[in-house]
Amino acid sequence: MVNRKILVVDDESDMRIFISTVVETMGIEPITAKNGPEALEKARADLPALVILDVMMPGIEDGLQTYRQFKREEKLCRIPIIMLSAIAKKTFFHSIRMLIPQDGTPLPEPEAYMEKPPDADELSRLIKSFLQKEN
């Protein structure tokens, strides 16, 4: 059976509540985390079907570093990630290209990117599209 849980990672409680509510109204269980280390711990313990990850969180580029860690771990690298941020999409993708690991292999781009504040209907459609790909 496909895991129907979505990990919502954002340092702002209002945004975690908003996204979790969108996820719950779709009949999916949200798992929440307020920072990168907590997100990685929860993802390792209960592999979610999808991660919605804020880019700008406390710590130096915490969202980007968390994204990098997800993509480098064998157990987590295939989980689709929707990056969410107030920064412009072009700026974000430039930042991803600059995060080249020590082995020289560039990081893959995230499966999706949404600017804050996300539109609930657009977010729902995006989530549905990822969950349908899993089936």
Low-confidence stretches: none
User: What would the CATH topology be?
Assistant: Rossmann fold
Order of helices and strands: EHEHEHEHEH
Give the helix/strand class.
alpha/beta
CATH class: Alpha Beta
Mean pLDDT across residues: 86
Number of helices: 5
CATH superfamily (homologous) name: Response regulator
Whole-Å distance between the termini?
A: 9 Å
Radius of gyration: 14 Å
Strands ordered across the widest β-sheet: 2-1-3-4-5
Annotation, overall tally of beta strands: 5
| Overall morphology | globular
Residue fraction in strands: 15-25%
Total discrete domains: 1
| Fraction of residues in helix | 40-55%
In CATH, the architecture is 3-Layer(aba) Sandwich
**Major sheet description:** 5 strands, parallel
